[in-house]
Amino acid sequence: MVDISIDKFAKSVVKKNPGEDLKTVKESLKEALAAKKAGAKCPICGKPIWAAGSGITGSYMCFTCTTGEADDSEDYEIVD
């Protein structure tokens, strides 16, 4: 995974999805990152959640269960 700030990731999400509200996206990402830090696990496989994806989809799951892909080396993960 490639680390990215919440602010930068949220801005990229809103840029690609003009109907999204930046403040709402940031809050959702902050909540998902807090859940990950608190130990939230994917309900399907038990791995730690993917905070970036979980914050956008609202489903707290790991990268693989969210995307169906195993290689996360080029995907973003949010950090403080």
Structure, described:
This protein is mainly alpha-helical. It contains 4 helices and 2 strands; from the N terminus they run βααααβ. It has a two-stranded parallel ribbon with strand order 1-2. Helix 1 packs across helix 2 and helix 2 crosses helix 3. The two termini are 15 Å apart. The mean pLDDT is 97.
Question: Low-confidence spans: pLDDT under 50, at least 5 residues?
Answer: none
State the helicity in percent bands.
Answer: 40-55%
Kindly report the average pLDDT value.
97
Q: End-to-end span in angstroms? A: 15 Å
In terms of DSSP E residues, the strand content is 5-15%
Overall 3D shape:
globular
Radius of gyration, CA atoms, in whole angstroms? 12 Å
Number of strands: 2
Q: What oligomeric state do the depicted chains represent?
A: single chain
Order of helices and strands: EHHHHE
- Major sheet size, sense and barrel closure: 2 strands, parallel
Strand order of the largest sheet: 1-2
- Counted by DSSP, the helix tally is 4
Indicate the structural class.
mainly alpha
